[in-house]
């Protein structure tokens, strides 16, 4: 996954992490002060769709 940096993060401020998955893909966003710092998403490969979703 590659994710472009949209705003420079400030190490003194808290960072919020949002993520979501589906049977077809996954994605995540890092936010700080309500602005997107970075994001990434991708489709799952065929074999990854067979991974268990719990321990």
Automatic annotation (TrEMBL):
Domain of life, source organism: Eukaryota
Reverse transcriptase/retrotransposon-derived protein RNase H-like domain boundaries: 2-55
Lineage, highest ranks first: Eukaryota, Viridiplantae, Streptophyta, Embryophyta, Tracheophyta
UniProt xrefs under SUPFAM superfamilies: DNA/RNA polymerases
Entry-linked PANTHER family: ENZYMATIC POLYPROTEIN-RELATED, RIBONUCLEASE H
The name this protein goes by in its record: ABC transporter C family member 12-like
InterPro entries on file: DNA/RNA_pol_sf, RT_RNaseH_2
């Amino acid at each position: 996954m590659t994710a472009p940096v949209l705003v420079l993060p400030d190490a003194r401020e808290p960072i919020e992490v949002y993520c979501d998955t589906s049977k077809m893909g996954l994605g995540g966003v890092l936010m700080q002060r309500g602005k997107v710092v970075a994001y990434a998403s991708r489709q799952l490969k065929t074999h990854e769709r067979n991974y268990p979703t719990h321990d």
